[in-house]
Amino acid sequence: MNMPLIRMLAFIRGHIYKIALSSLLRIVNVFAGSALFGLSGYLLADVLISRRQPQSALWISLAVIGILKAAARYAEQISGHNAAFNILDILRQKLFHAFSEKDADSLASSRTGDLAVRAMGDVDLIEIFYAHTLAPALSAVLFILIAAAAAAVLVSPVAAAAVAAMYLCAGIGIPVLFQAASSSAAQRYRGAQAALSADLSESLAGIQDLQAFAAVDAEQARHRRSAEKAYGLNQGLQMLSGFRDVLVDLLLGTSLIVLIFLAARENLLGTDPLSWALVCALAGGFSAILGINRAVDDLPKSRAAAQRILQVLDEPSDSPAWTASSADGDPSGYDISVENLSFSYGNNQGIRDISFRLKQGEHLLITGQTGSGKTTLATAILGLLEPEGGCVRIGGIDVRSIEPSRRFALITAARQNLMLVRGSAMENIELGVPAEGTPVPGHALEIAEIPQLMTELPDGEDTLVSGTDEQISGGQRRRIGLAAALARSARIMVLDEAFAGLDDDLRKRIRGKLLDWARREGISIIELSHDLSDSVDTARIAVLAGGSLIESGSYDELMERRGAFWDMAVL
């Protein structure tokens, strides 16, 4: 065991009693199995040596021990897996939280398939460590100690030393040696497996493009080569495991031969049934030693998985840090002030020195070509990016100093890159409801025309959707996202291409209802769109180009200036 797995032990807090119970039951199971063999050996030897019938109490003891072993085995599986699954749930929550703390740029640069492997596959491998490593290791060590003590009492100190040495070598020495030899191979295999999963996820997401370029066969060939590489690495691990098993079996068999030889030298085999009982009991305890070997089979993979999990958990958060001591208090109102806001993606400029003010209940349309920085600006306004300069204030308070749950009760967004979670269409809308179990507000369903949308879906509101589900069009996806945003009843809404993909009549109808509702309720709207048809009836417009706001005014004012906005409108 090394540092990654040692650190994994920290997650058993709160479940120590379950792990301890599982270990105790494992010990009972191992020793009951050994006792079955030992008592059977004693009965047979006693009949052969003394020529008398065994007592009925011994037969009853065999039955009781057998039942005890079965019950202990069953209870061990229940308690061990229950503890492991609870711990895995904690790990998955921590991973999900870590991913949620990554900013948009980091998530975009991470491979979706690799994230999925870390969140699911790696955590599943750790289950083996919690459920099938700790208890077997403890029971094996205890069995070796008691076996050596019994050999010393019933045979000789030399027999005790021989049994202890061979069992320690078979149970600890050989597994540790082969674990070290297979560690790097397991890490390479896990990396190859993760890369293959990521490649497959990305290829499936772009299958239509591959078909258009007639590149499906070439892509399949590439995946086949990656799979063969992973298979080769796994085959090497299995060969090491098989060779180790051969050595362990030889060593365990030799230990019995040595014990029989030493007992015979002491003239015990023909006179003392307990000597045969010991030999048989040790044979019955082989399961304890072999249990370690089976655990060691997956220990390198578990260690590699632990390293990858800890790599994610140890990465610093990209999200703005919030602590109670950093809070400036609640906003005094809902006016928005963007002050000299700047953010870049490495060497690529995102937004630069952007400033504007928006009073409560006002509507600002920010327009610009694709790549002008609209989505980056929207993300920064929501407080999901740590700006390199400047800040965003709501009611005079920097959004980064507002406790996150409070912040997202004040400001919400309908974004163009909405990712649906796996579930029904209505469940995705209900994600926006602040309190779980609360019905979706009527205005959210009415404005986004959700009842009509549900009639278009195969199973209505129960239609199952996911992030890449093609049952949902881009326009339908955005209506679901808009309804979820409206369901929050926040005082400020950021609309990032929220109406893209809708046909003209539906777009005008939904947008009109949304703006009318916002005016009545005093909701502030920051709308980002490349579609200039939205600008004709908008009182205040700002133009974004190259990450900077270059002009602002009403539609008529901007057209009269014949600047960047006029160029976009005419050309």
TrEMBL record:
Q: Where does the ABC transporter domain start and stop, copy by copy?
A: 336-571
Record localization: Cell membrane
Tell me the Gene3D superfamilies matching this sequence.
ABC transporter type 1, transmembrane domain, P-loop containing nucleotide triphosphate hydrolases
Coiled coil, from the record: none
Domain ABC transmembrane type-1 stretches: 20-265
State the Pfam families in the record: ABC_membrane, ABC_tran
Major localization listed first in the record, in broad terms: membrane
PROSITE patterns recorded:
ABC_TM1F (PS50929), ABC_TRANSPORTER_1 (PS00211), ABC_TRANSPORTER_2 (PS50893), SIGMA54_INTERACT_1 (PS00675)
Annotated Gene Ontology cellular component terms: plasma membrane
Q: Which residues cross the membrane?
A: 21-45, 57-75, 128-152, 158-178, 246-264, 276-296
Q: Which UniProt keywords apply?
A: ATP-binding, Membrane, Nucleotide-binding, Transmembrane, Transmembrane helix
MF annotations from Gene Ontology: ABC-type transporter activity; ATP binding; ATP hydrolysis activity
Q: Return the SUPFAM superfamilies for the record.
A: ABC transporter transmembrane region, P-loop containing nucleoside triphosphate hydrolases
- What is the membrane topology here? Multi-pass membrane protein
Q: Name the chain's protein.
A: Transport ATP-binding protein CydC
The organism named in the record is Salinispira pacifica
